[in-house]
Amino acid sequence: MMFNHKQIILLVSLLLVLFSCSIFIPNIGFESDNDILNFINTIDNDVLNFKNTFEKYILNFKRTINSDNIKHSSNVGPRAYASTNPNGFVVSTSTSIKTIQTKQVLNNKKKWVNTYSTNNNFKYPSKKFRWVTVKFSITTSKYIKVSNNPHFPKGATVLYSSDKTNATVIVVKKLSTNYQKIPNPYLSPSNSCQSNNPTIKKLAKKITNGKTDKAAADKILAYVQKKIVYQKYSNTKYGALKTLKLKRGNCVDSTHLTVALLRAAGIPAQYHDEGVYNEFGHCWPLVYVKYKGKNQWLPGESTLITGKATKYSYTAPFSKTAVNWFVIRDFKNIKPDYNENLYNYWW
């Protein structure tokens, strides 16, 4: 039987009392019979009091031992029992927090459904997308000595041992759900495409009369083709807004302006470019509209080619062949003449 520190201190105290009595009695002297009689009466009373006190200590000592055994001694399982309930003994419980994020798209039936395609923004630029973030807790409890008719929480996952005496109970609880709109990249502004600028928005509305079909997109393309004069330089220099004010720019900036006007009008648009040897290239806009009964991306040529106003390069609408004049693909194996003897007629 194991004793704790309180029990040991109690036993030592009792032994010290008995030892003190044994030392005290032999050293007492008596001068008369009355002294002896008084001492005997005193001893009788002390012994009686000591007996009563000792019996109380012993009783409390037994209760302490018994209660301690009840609390900690068991042949069923470890001392770490958290509690008991009608389902059995709970030997452990743990809770973890998890978060899941899912991408959703608004389908034609106006219902949000999960989507797992990484390219669906490009395939469906006119659709709405959002992120759904769900936070939930997972509580796992382990039971032993499971009762015959346990009543575990509704909806919990219960995994029993082979003999049905032990069980692991998993409870999943939703804590919160947050929705975050995904901006449409083909309708959003950027550093060089200031589609949210009041001047550009006002012009886009004037050109399209508030419409978002292919005819409206073609009007924007024609405006840029006629108004912006080509200026030779590399990459971007002005951006959409300054190109509009200066009425000049290279293929990159004329495309910036076209895309900005299209997006300001609510028509999905993006850039496309190709080049060879990193020395020569071209940029043009793509627009997402309904064409021949089908929603699709169509290229357009926004750059005014001075002295070369062909049907493909000047006031040509968005179409599959809008940039056929740009034959850079045919020159991938030919080294460009950087004195522009080969390419100057394109500009």
Radius of gyration: 46 Å
Strand residue percentage: 25-35%
How far is it from the N-terminal to the C-terminal residue, by CA? 103 Å
Describe the largest sheet.
Answer: 6 strands, antiparallel
CATH topology of the largest domain: C8orf32 fold
CATH class of the largest domain, named Alpha Beta
Strand-pairing-aware structural class = alpha+beta
Q: Report helical residue fraction.
A: 25-40%
The number of domains is 3
Number of helices: 7
Q: Count the beta strands.
A: 11
Strand and helix order: HHEEEHEEEHHEHEHEEE
What's the rounded overall pLDDT mean? 75
CATH architecture of the largest domain: Roll
Can you put this structure into words, describing what you see?
By secondary structure, the chain is an alpha+beta fold. The protein folds into 3 domains: 5-20 and 33-72; 83-182, no CATH class; 198-346, C8orf32 fold, CATH 3.10.620.30. The protein has 7 helices and 11 strands. It has helices at 5-24, 33-72, 120-123, 198-208, 214-227, 239-246, 251-264; strands at residues 83-85, 88-106, 112-114, 129-144, 157-160, 167-182, 229-230, 248-249, 269-276, 280-291, 294-299. Strands 1, 2, 3, 4, 5 and 6 form a 6-stranded antiparallel beta sheet that branches. It is elongated.
Descriptive labels:
single chain, 347 residues, alpha+beta, C8orf32 fold, 3 domains, six-stranded antiparallel β-sheet, three-stranded antiparallel β-sheet, 7 helices, 26% strand, elongated, disordered C terminus
Question: How are the SSEs placed, and which strands pair?
Answer:
Blueprint: H1 5-24, H2 33-72, E1 83-85, E2 88-106, E3 112-114, H3 120-123, E4 129-144, E5 157-160, E6 167-182, H4 198-208, H5 214-227, E7 229-230, H6 239-246, E8 248-249, H7 251-264, E9 269-276, E10 280-291, E11 294-299
Parallel strand pairs: 7-8
Antiparallel strand pairs: 1-2, 2-3, 2-4, 4-6, 5-6, 9-10, 10-11
Helix pairs in contact: 4-7, 5-7, 6-7
